[in-house]
Write a structure and sequence with these properties.
The protein contains 2 helices and 7 strands, in the order βββαβββαβ. With 134 residues, it is an alpha+beta fold.
Length: 134
């Protein structure tokens, strides 16, 4: 039986012998569909855990191929653009510690040359988990 595992938020998982990678987000595993999608978000292929069974963790929506990290020129806030159009949301990554925990790639943060107030994507759940994943 699968369960929600918020204590694992930020971990990237892979089953032994598989190329597929999942991210634990809000306690659920989210499949990352391609190398390009992975590289658009994460800083390293290191530290992907293969000692946990992804089938033991409740499934969530896959990370869409359109997911990116962004901020606006007038704000230091970094967001994950998540979801699939027309239901995309911006999820605030609340701190440097959270960026580090999830191993999001600072070099992949797009700077949009519009004010934050002009962004029409609704707010999604913020990404808040800090500390080292269990």
């Amino acid at each position: 039986m699968s369960e929600i595992r918020e204590d694992l938020d930020g971990l990237r998982l892979r089953m032994p012998g598989s190329d597929s990678v999942w991210l634990v987000d809000k306690g659920k595993i989210r499949h990352i569909g391609s190398r390009e999608s992975y590289d658009a978000l994460f800083s390293t292929w290191d530290n992907i855990h293969s000692d946990l069974d992804v089938n033991d963790i409740e499934s969530g929506e896959s990370i869409p191929a359109t997911a990116i990290l962004f901020r606006c020129y007038d704000s230091p806030k970094v967001f994950l653009l998540d979801g699939v159009a027309p239901k995309q949301v911006k999820r605030h990554i609340v701190s440097r510690a959270v960026m580090s925990r999830f191993q999001f790639n600072w070099q992949r943060v797009h700077v949009w040359h519009v004010p934050l107030s002009a962004i029409k994507y609704p707010d999604g759940d913020p990404i808040t988990k800090t500390g080292r994943p269990s």
